[in-house]
Write a structure and sequence with these properties.
The protein is an alpha/beta fold and 498 residues long. Helix content is 25%, strand content 28%. The structure holds alpha-L-arabinofuranose.
Amino acid sequence: MEKTRVVFDPAYTIAQVDPRIFGGFLELMGRAVYEGVYDPKSCHADENGFRRDTLGALHRLNMTVMRYPGGNFASGYHWMDGIGPKDQRPTVRELAWQSIEPNQFGTDEFIKLTHLMGWIPMITVNLGTGTPEEARNWVEYCNSPVGTKYADLRAKTSSEAPYHVKLWCLGNELDGLWQLGHVPAEQYAILAQQAAKMMKDTDPSIEMVACGSSAMSSPSYIEWDRIVLEYIGSYADYVSLHRYVGNPENDTANYLAVTNTIDKRIEHMDAVCRIVQAKTRSKKRHYLCFDEWNVWYRATGPEDTNGRGKFAPPLIEEPYNLEDALVIAGFLNSFIRHADSVKIANIAQIVNVLAPILTQGDQMLLQSIYYPFAMFSCRRDGVAIQPVVIGPAYDSPSYGRVNYIDTSAILGDGVLHTFLINRDLSEVAEVEIDHAGGKIESILSAEVVCGSSPKDSNTYENPYNIISQPLKTGIVRDGKAIFHLPALSVAAVTFKVS
Ligand code: AHR
């Protein structure tokens, strides 16, 4: 294949990369919490009932922020069911996923977990079946000093010190017909405004995420976002985006070109934010919170989405392969290329449910998508640089033309982190990396995820089929680097630069 030249000119900076784009999402559903991160009966359980094995694997993902308790679950959740002595918490019928929720993992357990893991907590309030006042009371429970009702309750049940939860989502996917409490945009905007005002009155330091369109295919796409932002823009700091992609036609080349629409999704939403800012003559720019993203198209049937009245049923446990790992890297490249607008992003989710990590009894398995996330997130500090890619491209039926090489870069202190995906199904790609206006001195580290087929995956029998491994095909010459990237691969390379 013809060589690709990738130019990163440090003069063309996009913005500082917000570390919060390496976030996760823990929903109280399926086996995400129970059997996933919290399993007092497991041989891996610590004194809190948290699973040491999954937390160890999550630790290596280096996540920054964690969204909880949903998702769809949040729209029917009453947070007070999940506090106080565990044996006095009610077991309830959970409607979003039709499961049984015993409320053994509530706000205090979540906060304890975030402290243990060094995660920034991000809480979604219930604007489906809940009231604005209930949302406001949750802020008081989490953030107010003792001396008032809910803060005193926190002190009594768990901690005298406030939790200082800074990030709050104003509901979840309320534009969707499937959502408990779905309403048209105008009604959501009123409800969210009422909640946001009381929440902010309780703690003026919090930041809030307005619920944006849940899918590009939704009939109110973009219009919903405009209406909502125009109405509650002065309270909200971010607007949420959700995106799940897949390969239902089993066309790998087409699937890998989906990055074009990830870029487009971000640019549409940023455009709405800017139009609303102009229309309302506001000084405030809204940023994007991509608080659900992943590959999800296989585990979508009734057996995957309906818990049939069971406790911790296996729900939406998507198996991932090599092509999915490349798509995950494509999402991250897109977030880095849009560092000026995307400030928070949460891969959905973390364990068992749409997850990089699976459990089976006391066993644990790392899926293919685990590795690119880890490779990116340990190279996240610095400023995003605008890439220029000069090289071969192809036309995809659904998403238009893309280069075979998809890329992004972050310039840190004397180091340049580059991320490169080779979408070619069969050929090694020669890539020249040019730090224009500067010089590549040496390769500090280089890793790659690759395999022999797009459908290669990890199983309990063969758990190390798709992993990250050292990439040894790079050389540095005359201030530039040349790499040979295997077909269907994602690489992360850190250079010393001057
Ligand atoms: O992540 C799984 C589900 O996907 C979430 O609960 C919901 O918000 C989205 O539709």
